[in-house]
Amino acid sequence: MRTLYHFWISPACRKVRLALGEKGLKFDLEIEKPWERRHELLARNPAGDVPVLVDENDIVLADSQAICEYLEETYEDVPLLPKDRIDRAETRRLVGWFDRKFFFEVTDNLVEEKIMKRLTKSGTPNTAAIRAGHHNIHYHLEYITYLVERRSWLAGDNFSYADIAAAAQLSSVDYLGDVPWEQHPTAKIWYARAKSRPSFRSILADNLPGMPAPSHYADLDF
Amino acid sequence: MRTLYHFWISPACRKVRLALGEKGLKFDLEIEKPWERRHELLARNPAGDVPVLVDENDIVLADSQAICEYLEETYEDVPLLPKDRIDRAETRRLVGWFDRKFFFEVTDNLVEEKIMKRLTKSGTPNTAAIRAGHHNIHYHLEYITYLVERRSWLAGDNFSYADIAAAAQLSSVDYLGDVPWEQHPTAKIWYARAKSRPSFRSILADNLPGMPAPSHYADLDF
């Protein structure tokens, strides 16, 4: 059976969960706490992080984008990249935007400080970082608004890895209740459409004991 | 004419310069200082960073990995990814390793603190970050050693985007004279082989007035 080693709040892991779900591929989820540096994790991925996907035939894959490109080349029935190579470049540009720019400007400032530091007992939240995350998220929601005012989905006519990368980041931050949806109604409509897809179900069911999600988190009609 | 907007010390830009060079594609280089946030740069890439490649027919591309994947799909004569999809995933895993892990653990700590803060007049170098960069680089050179003891090049039999991503990072740090080559002779031999390739020539010719490279930087027989 296909197994995804993941940590539930990690946006990179959520990206792969969404990709597998969109492609209709069944998988088991195994929770991995990368900070425990388990020998088995390091053997599968010397970088010591998740996601790690063990596909059929024991093929071991690491790095969320390497996994997504592999899934695209291996399971072609449900494409998550456009056919045209210029459209593909545009989609990958946006994947890079959310995987890195959004992550470092927003997710890392909020999820790392508010959740990960508590779980890993690695210090107190940095309030300047949290303030920066709250400030920066508006710019990204404005960019999403700009894109979906011009296109059906973020990278063009079809739901793609760009939407998956963006929704993965936003869903992590939304678990904290830190996405100012009301101030960005167009971005909210896009997210509601993404969130309604069956691939999103397991992510909306995530719940950490002692750290519950806000009530709108799993609500499709939020 | 194809034009690459770049900043000379940026490893992401060096990665694209090497990719274009390996594929035998001619290009003009235009220096862009992203911190000046020129209107023309933002119009081409809303993320406001480099590299930005304007390919033939005025196709505008941003994000180093999106550009590299586009080049691979467009100019197929000189492949920089293997044919097999599992080998491709391994190559992309290593690209991710050097683009992100090496960058944040090493390059960002050294190049950002020692060069970029001076150029952008954005504060004094953080000595703790510099110490971390000097500490972390050993682990990465050991990983390169581990790989090339088992393979001809980092990802397998052939020179690939994995070697390009790694050499791009290391060349930026090497400009500072901060790579402890003598303690990692196997990694040094791999880098000497990479550095001898014609695609490397323009990178070895880089020289910032007032901030010269150490003498071994451009020496193929260092």
Task: Give a verbal description of the structure.
- The structure is a homodimer of 222-residue chains.
- With 222 residues, chain A is α+β, with helices and mostly antiparallel strands.
- Chain A folds into 2 domains: 3-74, Glutaredoxin; 85-198, Glutathione S-transferase Yfyf (Class Pi), Chain A, domain 2, CATH 1.20.1050.10.
- The first copy, chain A, is 52% helix and 7% strand.
- Chain A is built from 8 helices and 4 strands, in the order βαβαββαααααα.
- Chain A has helices at 11-22, 39-44, 64-74, 85-119, 127-148, 161-175, 185-195, 201-204; strands at 3-6, 28-31, 52-55, 59-62.
- Chain A has a 4-stranded mixed β-sheet with strand order 2-1-3-4, with helices on one face.
- In chain A, strand 1 (3-6), helix 1 and strand 2 form a beta-alpha-beta unit.
- In chain A, helix 1 crosses helix 6 and helix 4 (85-119) packs parallel to helix 6.
- The longest helix of chain A is centred in the middle third of the chain and has 35 residues, at 85-119.
- The first copy, chain A, is globular and about 45 Å long.
- The model of chain A has no long low-confidence stretch (mean pLDDT 96).
- The A-B interface holds A 46-47, 59, 61-63, 65-67, 69-70, 73-74, 85-86, 88-90, 92-93, 95-97, 100-101, 143 and B 46-47, 59, 61-63, 65-67, 69-70, 73-74, 85-86, 88-90, 92-93, 95-97, 100-101, 143.
- Chains A, B: One of its GO terms (biological process) is glutathione metabolic process.
